[in-house]
């Protein structure tokens, strides 16, 4: 069995003059996992997360990092907090310096890095969260989503092994929430261990690979989202509702409309399943839409806008903070900013063309994901790279087959 990166053993905690916030909490967080601590307000989620980097100390029980019990002297705590990065729900609690740059530099400076290494860490972290150019801005003038990204950059600059986010999307509008969740996806795709707390079951179902369900300071269940969220009794005990997609799937299964197997995680998976199972097979489509793919680092805004004008792409989406910044700067209207690949596949399946704008390693990811979908579904989909030079020429579409 993999050694857990973080582990709690029978942890209890009571706030001074307060209620018992945690009673006998034992969980294991494996390296590289995406875990969501889910529960209603007051369940003990934040208290539990604060145990993980030593901000709170259990009254009884033990917290272990990499198999070793936490020590609570200053030096051990400093070392631990470098490895277990904590992003508070309210970024105003976390952001302390007068400029974005100084704030992100705070951690690396405290770690004793050289000025050059600090500059590199700040530049890389701001680039990662899509905030290059914000260096001299005072954080308190930024939007909620931007502040959140500054707070994330500050943690990222210390290169922790684990990222802990207390309610990462609370108080953010839908678009900013999507951006933050996409950032968490990128962190996890890069092999980091990510933990969030949330009461949003839809978000947790879609995002997490492990759910820890909490209520009244206890763990009610721990397991894969489709298992934990299919248990209505447990959810009722936690005063939560099942995710809509899973609820619908389970009801259709109970009525015998579709066979119950592994529940779908996305609209694309769900619609494919219904189509296959109600029609006996996936229908052979004689015309599918094309998915254009462009690297925002390799194309000018004017070229891309000219391409969009001329091409048949009816839908445009961007993946990753850099690509979204590029689109905003160039005033390219984005229809999709989250779940972009799936949405473009859904459009291709009904014969409509779309364009995905992204950068770096995500280009390969798009090819891979669409290739996997084509192989699994038997429905070959064309991904066409838009290159700077090519975008000057009339669009020629290779025929499939
Ligand atoms: P959640 O994050 O799930 O909303 P919390 O961990 O914040 O839950 O709270 C768990 C319990 O501890 C609640 O009953 C809450 O009122 C209490 N609590 C949280 N923080 C404090 C505090 N600083 N002082 C006293 N009681 C607190």
Automatic annotation (TrEMBL):
One matching Pfam family, short form?
ABC_tran
Sorted alphabetically, the keyword list is:
ATP-binding, Cell membrane, Membrane, Nucleotide-binding, Translocase, Transport
Extract the coiled-coil ranges from the record.
none
InterPro entries in the cross-refs: AAA+_ATPase, ABC_transporter-like_ATP-bd, ABC_transporter-like_CS, ABC_transpr_CbiO/EcfA_su, Co_trans_ATP-bd, ECF_ABC_transporter_ATP-bd, P-loop_NTPase
SUPFAM superfamilies assigned? P-loop containing nucleoside triphosphate hydrolases (SSF52540)
Subcellular localization is given as: Cell membrane
| MF-aspect GO terms | ATP binding
The way this protein sits in the membrane is described as: Peripheral membrane protein
Q: Which GO terms describe its cellular component?
A: plasma membrane
Instruction: Name the family the entry cites.
Output: Belongs to the ABC transporter superfamily.
User: What name goes with this protein?
Assistant: ABC transporter ATP-binding protein
Q: Which organism is it from?
A: Methanoculleus palmolei
